[in-house]
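Appendix B. One record, verbatim.
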Amino acid sequence: MQVTIFQADCLHQSANCNYPHKMVVTSEADMAKLQSRDHVCAEYENGYRSKDGFVVSDNAPMDCDNDHSDDPADWITTEKLDELLPDVAYILVFSRNHMKSKGGKAARPRFHVYFPIHVISDANAYAALKRKIYDAFPFFDGNALDAARFLYGSPGSEVLWHEGSLFIEDYLTLSAKASIPQGKRNATMSHYAGRILKRLGVTDKAYKKFLEKAQDCDPPLEQEELDKIWASACKFYKKVAASPDYIPPDEYTGDSLNNANNLSDIGIYPA
């Protein structure tokens, strides 16, 4: 994963428009270093931030202040974001106001999410993509969608590096075509059952997500068939869980998610 970001010479200066320093971010350490100054996620003519001067960008930043609700149960956490976008590449950085009261609202998770994207060289298309992300995930800040947005630096904040096989716009395209057609329903649901069991274990939460995914089947699968798929996936999962090398869901890291507990190719139903 790689993104290109342009850094200013100052920190927490909203009036600044100059971002002359190009930084190619390829690691958590790079992103942490970048946070020492304010920055933008696009190149602008002569390094001067403006919509008219937009040149190119390979990433789209989104803000999450969790202002959409005052109920902590509704707040988006890093865990919830991972559940929503398990296969999407992004870099998450906690903002300078993370877990602090702001604007009269109680302390809550606040962070920036940098999504790698296919290169865009048109300001309107860039803003439209950010709007599309917001429409799909309205917990992001709807006032931070323009093509000349800057981000305050957040020195010392934790960086979460979330590798994924999809860019966010590819994910949105696939989501719009999410129906599972006849002939692929059993195999798709079997594959999904393996993935969600790997992530959550044999739990009510995992089964609920399995049923939510089943709503994409067109035409719907009978409940009896869904129960059969789920039972087979659980049986296979329990065999894997009995292995001495098995890592429980509440202990795995991002690497172990990718490299351990291989349940993604169960293949219970081939058609």
